[in-house]
């Protein structure tokens, strides 16, 4: 039976898979190369953009630096030539070479009433007899304290130690400070009209008072006094503290 089946039904022949033609391989290779070329072009474009951005940034920084230097030089010249500078600034920059303190031979420039410029003369400390200056804002703070003391004296019917001319001088010093600052910051009642004060909860654009105090309290230029007048005296008797005292961190920045 098997022999008869083998005569009439021949087995189905097996065929090997047809190999991919050379043209198909070429098409695939070209597709890969085209993709690589596209990715390379995109990479080159990104690199070019980064280089251009970096160049623009460098140029911008250089321009900002140049303008800042030119502005500073122009400001310094204007301060000496005509006494005009940025609002609220002193004629020597942030602070004079030495001020409120020991001069150490670094005399500040002084524009006289007649317009000529000379070196600002110093005065002498009371004990060590060293040349010193005083910072204007520190004097203004002294005046504010003097006015507050005068108010307290009058409110409590106590004789004031300050002569009327001294209080008038201090009021004028505070007026000068206000007019010199010419602060144009807008304000309002942020918590409702007439609720609290018109200055409540609003930022004040300031220079750094603590930095100025820290600079002035550096022992290389610092000079401090104490009042040795007896309790209840109607006068001050200030004497220099020698050697310069060790200050706490809060004292160095004027907060204690």
Automatic annotation (TrEMBL):
Cross-referenced InterPro entries: UstYa-like
Tagged with keyword Transmembrane helix: yes
Coiled coil start-end: none
Protein name as catalogued: Tat pathway signal sequence
Family: Belongs to the ustYa family.
Domain of life: Eukaryota
Presence of the UniProt keyword Ribosomal protein in the record: no
Upper taxonomic lineage: Eukaryota, Fungi, Dikarya, Ascomycota, Pezizomycotina
Pathway it works in: Mycotoxin biosynthesis
Biological process terms in GO annotation: mycotoxin biosynthetic process
Membrane-crossing segments per the record: 50-70
Keywords: Membrane, Transmembrane, Transmembrane helix
């Amino acid at each position: 039976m098997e022999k008869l089946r083998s005569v009439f039904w021949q087995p189905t022949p097996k065929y090997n898979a047809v190999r991919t033609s050379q043209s198909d391989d070429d098409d695939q290779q070209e597709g890969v190369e085209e993709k690589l070329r596209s990715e390379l072009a995109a990479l080159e474009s990104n690199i070019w953009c980064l280089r251009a951005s970096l160049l623009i940034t460098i140029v911008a920084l250089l321009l900002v630096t140049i303008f800042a230097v030119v502005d500073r030089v122009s400001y310094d010249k204007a301060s000496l030539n005509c006494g005009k500078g940025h609002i609220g600034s002193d004629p020597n920059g942030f602070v004079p070479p030495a001020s409120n303190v020991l001069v150490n031979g670094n005399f500040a420039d002084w524009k006289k009433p007649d317009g000529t410029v000379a070196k600002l003369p110093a005065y002498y400390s009371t004990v060590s007899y060293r040349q010193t200056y005083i910072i204007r804002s520190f004097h203004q703070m002294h005046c504010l304290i003097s006015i507050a003391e005068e108010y307290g004296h009058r409110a409590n019917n106590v004789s004031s130690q300050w002569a009327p001319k001294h209080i008038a001088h201090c009021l004028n010093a505070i007026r000068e400070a206000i007019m010199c600052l010419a602060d144009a910051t807008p304000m309002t009642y942020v918590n409702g009209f007439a609720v609290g004060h018109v200055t409540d909860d609003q930022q004040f654009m300031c220079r750094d008072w603590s930095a100025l105090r820290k600079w002035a309290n550096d022992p290389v230029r610092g000079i401090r006094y104490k009042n040795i007048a007896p309790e209840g005296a109607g006068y001050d008797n200030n004497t220099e503290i020698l050697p310069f005292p060790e200050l706490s961190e809060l004292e160095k920045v004027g907060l204690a």
